[in-house]
C-alpha cells in the first residue's frame, strides 16, 4: 500500500470551513464546521512523520500525534481514536480549545519548512467526535473495588481527569464542586462558540455512569470543613482552579457597569443552558445595545469580546496595554474577533472610569513598550500627553485570575501556600503540607491551559495511587 502520509508538498493546508462571520455572530454555536472523512484523511496525510515529533514534544500530554495522524490518513479511525484517547481524557475538548498555534501546530516541522502546519487540532476533534457518534467511546469501567475512597474538590479538567483515573483503578471517588454543574471553566467560563456545552456534559455524564459520585453546589468551608472531608476519605485532591479576578486600581472602578469577566461569561453560559439569570435580565451582565469595552489581552478577554458581539452589543472595543505581537491570547482568536467586528485598541491602558448612575466612558492613555521586565517581556509605559476617551456602557475587566485564600475558605490554616497564593506542593509527590491532601491544576501552577490541567490530573492520580497503596500496606501490617 502506498504511504498515506508525507503529502505536505502536494496537498495544501486546509482547516475546516468557518461559518460566515455575520451568521455566526448571531448565535453561540461553534464557528467551524467539521471535516468530512475524506478531508480529514487528506489533511492527516500531510504529516511528515518526522523522526523527532516536535508536535508531541510541545504537547503537555505528549500525545502520540504522528501515529494517530497516520492511522487517520489510512482510514483506521477507530484505532486513531483509541490511541488519542490513551493519553488524554478529553481529546475532543483539547481539539477545540487548545492554542495549537502556540503548542503542537506552532512546532510542526512542516510549518518551519513553509508548507503550513498539519491541522492537528481539527483532526483531533474530528477523530473523537466520530468516536462518540459511532459508539466507540467506552464507559468508565472501574477496576476491582478497593476499600479506600478519594475526595476531589473541584470539577474542572484537572479534577475530572484525576477522578476518572482513580475510578478506573477501583477507588470510590466523590467529586465536590461549588457550581450546580460539573466542568468548571469548561462549563461556565468558555463560551459555546468555542466549546458547545453538550461536549462537556457528555463527558461528565460518562463519569457519573461510571460510578463517580458528584456533590454539586457544595462549598468546602460551608457544607463541610477540610477536616471533615479528610475524615470521610482516605485521600483528598484539591483541584479548584483560580477564580480571584485581578484588580484595576483607577478612579471609578466600582461604578455600576464595570463588571468581572467571569461573572459576564458565567451569566451568558447559564442563559445558554436555559437558566433564569437575574443579572442578565436586568441588563447588568447583558451587552445588548451597549458600547462595550473589554480590558485585557488574554483568551478570557477574547471570549468576552466575542460574547458581547453575540449578545447584540452596539460596539465592542478591546483595550490592551501591549501590541498585538506581545499579547498572551491566541492570534487565531484575535482574527476571529476581528472578523466578527471587534475593534482592538492596542497599546492603551485605562486610567479612570467616568460614571453617572453607571459607567459612561473609559479614560485611557496610549502606551509604548520600554525595556524588558523580569519576565523578559518589554514593559508598557505611558506615552506623555496621549490621553483619550472611549464611550462605554459596559466595561468588562479581563486581566486574569489569581488564587483565592483557600486556607481561610476551607477552614484549613495548615494548608500551605506560595507567595502567589497558590497551593504549595512537594514537586515529587504533588502532596500539599497536609498529609494525604494532594493538589493539581491551576491552583498549583497558576492560571494556565486546560491541557496542562489534564496533564496534572493524570500525574496526580499516579501519585495518589502510590500513596494510597503504601497506606493500605501499612495499615494491614499494623493490624
TrEMBL record:
<protein>
    <submittedName>
        <fullName>NAD(P)-dependent oxidoreductase</fullName>
    </submittedName>
</protein>
<dbReference type="InterPro" id="IPR023753">
    <property type="entry name" value="FAD/NAD-binding_dom"/>
</dbReference>
<dbReference type="GO" id="GO:0016491">
    <property type="term" value="F:oxidoreductase activity"/>
</dbReference>
<dbReference type="InterPro" id="IPR006006">
    <property type="entry name" value="GltD-like"/>
</dbReference>
<dbReference type="Pfam" id="PF14691">
    <property type="entry name" value="Fer4_20"/>
</dbReference>
<keyword id="KW-0408">Iron</keyword>
<keyword id="KW-0004">4Fe-4S</keyword>
<dbReference type="Pfam" id="PF07992">
    <property type="entry name" value="Pyr_redox_2"/>
</dbReference>
<dbReference type="InterPro" id="IPR028261">
    <property type="entry name" value="DPD_II"/>
</dbReference>
<dbReference type="InterPro" id="IPR036188">
    <property type="entry name" value="FAD/NAD-bd_sf"/>
</dbReference>
<keyword id="KW-0560">Oxidoreductase</keyword>
<feature type="domain" description="FAD/NAD(P)-binding">
    <location>
        <begin position="150"/>
        <end position="457"/>
    </location>
</feature>
<keyword id="KW-0411">Iron-sulfur</keyword>
<keyword id="KW-0521">NADP</keyword>
<feature type="domain" description="Dihydroprymidine dehydrogenase">
    <location>
        <begin position="25"/>
        <end position="135"/>
    </location>
</feature>
<dbReference type="GO" id="GO:0051539">
    <property type="term" value="F:4 iron, 4 sulfur cluster binding"/>
</dbReference>
<dbReference type="GO" id="GO:0046872">
    <property type="term" value="F:metal ion binding"/>
</dbReference>
<dbReference type="InterPro" id="IPR009051">
    <property type="entry name" value="Helical_ferredxn"/>
</dbReference>
<keyword id="KW-0479">Metal-binding</keyword>
Amino acid at each position: 500500500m502506498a504511504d498515506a502520509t508525507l503529502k505536505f508538498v502536494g496537498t495544501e493546508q486546509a482547516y475546516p470551513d468557518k461559518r460566515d462571520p455575520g451568521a455566526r455572530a448571531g448565535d453561540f454555536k461553534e464557528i467551524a464546521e467539521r471535516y468530512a472523512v475524506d478531508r480529514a484523511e487528506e489533511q492527516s496525510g500531510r504529516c511528515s512523520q518526522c523522526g523527532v515529533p516536535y508536535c508531541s514534544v510541545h504537547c503537555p500530554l505528549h500525545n502520540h500525534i504522528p501515529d494517530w495522524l497516520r492511522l487517520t490518513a489510512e482510514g483506521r479511525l477507530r484505532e486513531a481514536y483509541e490511541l488519542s484517547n490513551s493519553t488524554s481524557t478529553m481529546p475532543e475538548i483539547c481539539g477545540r480549545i487548545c492554542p495549537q498555534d502556540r503548542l503542537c501546530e506552532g512546532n510542526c516541522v512542516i510549518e518551519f519548512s513553509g508548507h503550513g502546519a498539519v491541522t492537528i487540532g481539527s483532526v483531533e476533534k474530528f477523530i473523537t467526535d466520530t468516536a462518540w457518534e459511532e459508539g466507540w467511546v467506552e464507559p468508565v469501567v472501574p477496576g476491582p473495588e478497593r476499600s479506600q475512597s478519594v475526595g476531589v474538590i473541584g470539577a474542572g479538567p484537572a479534577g475530572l481527569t484525576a477522578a476518572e483515573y482513580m475510578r478506573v483503578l477501583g477507588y470510590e471517588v466523590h467529586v465536590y464542586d461549588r457550581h450546580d454543574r460539573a466542568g468548571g471553566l469548561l462549563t461556565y467560563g468558555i463560551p459555546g462558540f468555542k466549546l458547545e456545552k453538550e461536549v462537556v456534559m457528555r463527558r461528565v455524564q460518562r463519569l457519573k455512569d461510571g460510578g463517580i459520585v458528584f456533590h454539586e453546589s457544595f462549598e468546602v468551608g460551608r457544607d463541610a470543613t477540610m477536616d471533615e472531608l479528610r475524615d470521610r476519605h482516605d485521600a483528598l485532591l484539591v483541584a479548584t482552579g483560580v477564580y480571584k479576578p485581578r484588580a484595576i486600581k483607577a478612579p471609578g472602578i466600582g461604578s455600576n457597569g464595570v463588571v468581572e469577566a467571569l461573572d459576564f461569561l458565567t451569566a451568558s453560559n447559564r442563559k445558554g443552558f436555559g437558566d433564569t439569570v437575574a443579572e442578565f435580565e436586568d441588563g447588568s451582565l447583558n451587552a445588548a445595545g451597549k458600547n462595550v469595552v473589554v480590558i485585557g489581552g488574554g483568551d478570557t478577554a477574547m471570549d468576552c469580546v466575542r460574547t458581547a458581539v453575540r449578545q447584540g452589543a452596539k460596539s465592542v472595543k478591546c483595550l490592551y496595554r501591549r501590541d498585538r505581537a506581545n499579547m498572551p491570547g491566541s492570534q487565531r482568536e484575535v482574527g476571529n474577533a476581528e472578523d466578527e467586528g471587534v475593534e482592538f485598541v492596542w497599546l492603551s491602558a485605562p486610567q479612570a472610569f467616568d460614571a453617572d448612575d453607571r459607567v459612561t466612558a473609559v479614560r485611557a492613555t496610549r502606551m509604548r513598550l520600554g525595556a524588558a521586565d523580569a519576565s523578559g517581556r518589554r514593559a508598557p509605559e505611558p506615552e506623555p500627553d496621549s490621553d483619550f476617551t472611549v464611550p462605554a456602557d459596559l466595561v468588562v475587566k479581563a486581566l486574569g485570575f489569581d488564587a483565592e485564600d483557600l486556607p481561610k475558605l476551607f477552614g484549613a490554616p495548615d494548608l500551605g501556600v506560595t507567595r502567589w497564593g497558590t497551593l504549595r506542593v512537594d514537586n515529587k509527590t504533588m502532596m500539599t503540607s497536609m498529609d494525604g491532601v494532594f493538589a493539581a491544576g491551576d491552583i498549583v501552577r497558576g492560571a494556565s491551559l486546560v491541557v496542562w490541567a489534564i496533564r496534572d490530573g493524570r500525574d496526580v492520580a499516579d501519585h495518589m495511587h502510590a500513596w494510597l497503596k503504601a497506606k493500605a500496606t501499612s495499615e494491614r501490617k499494623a493490624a
